[in-house]
Design a protein that fits this description.
Helix 4 runs parallel beside helix 11 and helix 9 (181-216) runs antiparallel to helix 10 (225-243). This protein is mainly α and 424 residues long. The protein has one domain: Na+/H+ antiporter like fold (Up-down Bundle). The chain is built from 18 helices and no strands.
Length: 424
């Protein structure tokens, strides 16, 4: 009860001064992470953290499930259409190269890891989090096209990272000889991916279809629509737990499928993530601070070096390659490359990996590398957001009106509003 009581009190205090904090470099992730570190110093905090670990993980997992569903439910086909579309390039070339380069850097910096263990690190750290640079996707000084690209990327790359993570875990376990290759990969393909996809399709089509029908027939009260929408991903969680499927894949696929019967489902889903969903997000950062404090003595210079590489070279080089031949200014490429913070999704995916109980030799290294990278990102991206916007805004003001960054957008594109904001 100590941990939950402290968290609830902190949420209340934060709500009282949240508007004033928006004018400072103290972001919500920084505040709640530091609070978690501070609370860990209480005598009973460490014991309670171990006793309630599974409950705390479940809360964090549900938060990510809701976020994945919401992000996927807001994907418009035109949003990702065309090879010259910024989100498409970031989510394809950029993300794949980041995973490859991240795995190579892990092999080089972190010591004795297998390639599959290095892949686990890279997959966990592949998703970006617009919430750590919330001011960026809100700022009108940043061109709309750039804001939307970063927002959409953050909204979708966590769902796309899950299959890579599960695949690398399966291969790493196989390499350790704890199960036959065919058995492990078959279980991964059938249960995690196959069942997860089927559950997502079924829940999305049925849930979206029934919600859409109820609205058209005027059976639903307006206040009940968000409740019906939230129930769809929660059904995915229950079905996934019963079948051994990935609840994250199921929720992400359900968000895509639900649009078939209910085109406006994303707008109703965001009503949850902008309010109650934020509570889940803050809790994850609070929980992260507790784990950081617990493991601080185990951090080494190598994991911090990897953190720096992950946030710079591993992120920025793939972005530069993904955005080539688009005519974007060097300032834009640098800006988009730097503002790829690691946060909510990486924390939860790291916890998910630990819950797999793969017992890999490099498990401790994987855990510490992920924690160090997210910790550095929370501080570095939080502190650099406002000055970065000032510098970038000045560069954009000097561009010609025909610059690609300033090209008009055909439609509003939404990304991770629950962790960032409306792209508007």
């Amino acid at each position: 009860m100590i941990l939950m009581s402290a968290f609830v009190l902190l949420v209340f205090l934060y709500s009282l001064v949240s508007r004033r904090l928006e004018r400072t470099v103290i972001t919500a992730p920084i505040l709640f992470t530091c609070a978690g570190v501070a609370i860990s110093l209480l005598p009973r905090a460490a014991t309670e953290l171990e006793l309630e670990r599974h409950v705390l993980l479940l809360v964090a997992e549900i938060g990510l499930v809701m976020t994945l569903f919401t992000d996927a439910s807001r994907v418009s086909p035109r949003m990702l259409k065309g090879n010259r579309n910024l989100p498409t390039r970031l989510l394809s070339t950029g993300m794949l190269l980041s995973i490859v380069l991240g795995a190579a850097a892990a092999m080089f910096v972190l010591g004795p890891l297998t390639w599959w263990e290095a892949g686990i690190v890279a997959a966990i750290l592949a998703p970006t989090d617009a919430g750590l640079g919330q001011v960026i996707v809100n700022s009108e000084r940043v061109p709309l096209r750039i804001r939307q690209a970063l927002n959409v990327e953050a909204g979708l790359n966590d769902g796309l990272s899950v299959p890579f993570l599960m695949f690398f875990i399966a291969l790493a376990v196989t390499a350790e000889g704890s199960a036959g290759t065919g058995a492990v990969l078959s279980r991964f393909l059938v249960e995690q991916l196959g069942y997860g996809t089927l559950i997502g399709v079924a829940a999305g089509l049925a849930g979206g279809g029934l919600l859409g029908l109820a609205l058209r027939r005027q059976w639903m009260a307006a206040a009940s629509v968000p409740l019906g929408v939230v129930a769809v991903p929660l059904l995915c969680v229950l079905a996934s737990e019963a079948s051994g499927a990935s609840m994250f894949i199921a929720a992400f696929v359900a968000g895509l499928a639900a649009q078939v019967g209910f085109r406006g489902i994303g707008e109703h889903a965001i009503e949850f993530t902008e309010e109650w969903g934020q509570l889940f997000n803050y809790f994850v950062f609070f929980l992260f601070g507790l784990f950081v404090a617990r493991d601080w003595a185990q951090f080494t210079p190598a994991v911090f070096l990897y953190a720096v590489l992950s946030l710079t070279v591993v992120r920025m080089a793939p972005v530069a390659l993904a955005l080539r031949n688009l005519g974007l200014s060097r300032a834009t490429v640098w800006f988009m490359g730097w503002f790829g913070p690691r946060g909510l999704a990486s924390i939860v995916l790291g916890l998910v990996y630990l819950e797999q109980q793969a017992s890999l030799p490099g498990e401790s290294t994987i855990r510490l590398a992920v924690m160090a990278t997210v910790l550095v990102s929370i501080v570095a991206h939080g502190l650099s957001a406002v000055p970065g916007i000032d510098l970038y805004g000045k560069k954009m003001a000097s561009l010609d009106a025909s610059a690609p960054e300033l090209a008009p957008m055909p439609e509003a594109v939404a990304g991770r509003d629950g962790r960032g904001s409306h792209a508007s």
